[in-house]
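User: Thanks for the earlier help. One more: Ig-like domain-containing protein. Can you show the sequence and predicted structure together?

Assistant: Of course, both are below.
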Amino acid sequence: MWQIQRTQGCLRGSPMLPQSCHLNKLCTLKRRSSFKVKICSLVLLVRAASQEKTAHKIGVVGSSVDLPCDVDVSNCGKVYFITWTKNVSNEWKRLYLYSDAVEKPLQELANPDRADFFLRESTAFLRISPLRIEDDGTYKCDVTYVQGKCPSLSFATLTTYDSDNISQNTMIFEY
C-alpha cells in the first residue's frame, strides 16, 4: 500500500527510512497558444508498512484458532466497520462483517455458525471453530473508523493440520 505525502517529508531531513521513500516525477505537456509548456510535479510515495501487519497462525482440524486484527480506538476513534476476507484463487472473498448494527458470518463460516468476533480497545480477533482443513489460507482484516482516519489492514496466514497426520514428535511453531 502506498500513500501520497508532501515532498518535504523525505527531502528535508525526515526521520523516515530511505527505503520507505520513492519519488515520482510526473510531467504533463500543456499547450499555451503557439508553444508547449512542460509542467512537472514531484509526488512522494511513502510505503505504509506500519499499517499492514501479518500474523502466522497454526491450527489443528477440529480445534479453534484466533486470527488477530489491529484496532486503535484510542488514536483513531470509534470503529465504524470491520470486514474479514480470505484470499481464494487470488480474489478476496468476504467471510465476516462487523459493525454496531451487524455481526454476520458469511460463506463457509456461516453454515454452521463457525465464527465469533471479539473487539477490545486495541485489538480484535476472529475465532474460527471448529477448524476445517480448507480454512488454511491468508486472511485480511480491514478496519474503517467513524471519522475516516487511520485506515488499517491486518493480515493473518493460517496453516491447518489434520490431527491424524501429526505424530507425537512433531513440533509446530507460530511466528
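User: Great, one quick takeaway?

Assistant: The CA atoms of residues 54 and 155 lie 4 Å apart.
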